[in-house]
Model the fold of this input.
Amino acid sequence: MNIDMIRAAAGRIQGHANRTPLLSSPFLDDIAGRRVFVKAEALQKTGSFKFRGAWSAVSALKNAGGVIAFSSGNHAQGVALAAKAHGLPAVIIMPSDAPAMKIENTRALGAEVVLYDRANESRETIGEALAAERDLHLIRPFDDSHVIAGQGTTGLEIAQQAAEQGVTEGDVLVCCGGGGLTAGIATALEADAPGLRVRPVEPDGFDDVTRSLASGGWENNNQATGSICDAILTPSPGQLTFPIMQRLCGPGIVVPDEDCLRAMALAWSRLKVVLEPGGAISLAAALFHGDQIEGEAVIAVASGGNVDQPMFEKALTEYGQ
Amino acid sequence: MNIDMIRAAAGRIQGHANRTPLLSSPFLDDIAGRRVFVKAEALQKTGSFKFRGAWSAVSALKNAGGVIAFSSGNHAQGVALAAKAHGLPAVIIMPSDAPAMKIENTRALGAEVVLYDRANESRETIGEALAAERDLHLIRPFDDSHVIAGQGTTGLEIAQQAAEQGVTEGDVLVCCGGGGLTAGIATALEADAPGLRVRPVEPDGFDDVTRSLASGGWENNNQATGSICDAILTPSPGQLTFPIMQRLCGPGIVVPDEDCLRAMALAWSRLKVVLEPGGAISLAAALFHGDQIEGEAVIAVASGGNVDQPMFEKALTEYGQ
Done:
């Protein structure tokens, strides 16, 4: 994965993915004590940046009978829509206890959803059998060069949009699960905006990347669930993404769940953007953990907005007007 | 007001106003039975397109000790922020019974708020005295050429963004109060995308523009209040805007309030954008009144997102998931 792959991916997604805006509000600047810019990837097609990587990977396929992915969330919807647009069948393996709406949305985007029982079945075994039988190409959520390159197109846009605002130095905060978005953006900024430094942001208790960057090796989370930031609870950094993050990223930032809810309420009132908890975590870091950030301006990547209504209402009720 | 003024305004707002995205969702296409594109002006600075016109007018001033505006809503915030950025004092005349949050926000954006008693005082008298005393320039919400030109920059962007999506023919639905946004967009599209036709959209019972276009003269609404679309309840079409609308617009579309709430819930779930009722009315027309629209694609301008929390929660509760 390198900058040339990101530029090639940018060519392939042009006119298909949205060029999301870099938003700001004087009210957020006041809270943070510095200028805050928000790259609003919740406004991407299917409601998260995952569509970029999915389109990048699907559009790079030479010969395949279709695609397959394991996901209960944002990657599923990105792959489903990208495959549909390319006229390819998509199979998404989802746990049978996934939220009904996510299953329904993935089906509505044209994918065949295969449900499995988390307790008694292996999604890998099911997936491998289906892939072999039907000539399906597996699209991994982050350990795939074309996927990382697709997420990196976000970084090309940030470099250009930040320069238009006169920002060429400072921290770029990125919501971090497996590290596909983080590694992709870091690679793009190294080339196009070397004064901007990526900082991964993770939920309290799920700080595998932060600890891995500190120790120099792959660290694991101690638990698999227990944060509202469902989209970014990956057990450990990716095989492809971690070496890139190690080379290019500054220290990670760890944020408690309640700050994500506060950031969701402020994104609603001040930016008019709907964020999910994991998609709001970098904005939360910018607003409430500024002591760990350097520079007179900060850029927060708001990565997704696929939130259930009760969780969104909780954010407004507890931290709204 | 003409296309040259709009292009000049575009030059002045560049780097200051957001270039808002043209969003879409396959789920909205399914509801409408045609492709739906949403120009998301709720993502504009201060949460509505009004910032464009305010910046256009303030930046065109040659000599003034400051600016003054009458408004309890979106125009107030746009003028306040534009004036602050130009280092000019701003006085906003607001009714003393305006929502506390709107008064607070306008003050927080640096404006001096002068409250008046709707029942016993005339805002015009207060405003004229202040303007003369302090050399303040009055910025009208829609009957001002520079304001209309600023709103028209939305149309330049629509022409370009629609062409990128292969859309060069069809209806462009615009939320319509006094007609500044409608007239501005129509003038821009006449020049840059003549196959796109503007259609004003108004709330049921406040269809002064629709009836004026039908009768050929200025018609008035019978009431001043009674719709949740507070931002677009203007008594009659503007003096400058109506002749432009008459020359360029197709017939108006009238939408009941409950459809605006439904559209707000869908903008939340499918586009991740926060809309206020009046800002959602053109999307409501696109989704639920398609029998009055022509073409295989439709563009809806979602003009603002400054909604109070109880109204937003009502939309989600009644029409959400």
In short: Chain B has 13 helices and ten strands. Chain B has two domains: 3-49+144-319, 65-134. The interface with chain A takes residues 15, 18-21, 23-27, 30, 40, 42-43, 45, 47, 81, 101, 105, 108-109, 164-165, 268-269, 271-275, 305, 308-309, 312-313, 316, 320-321 of chain B (CB under 8 Å).
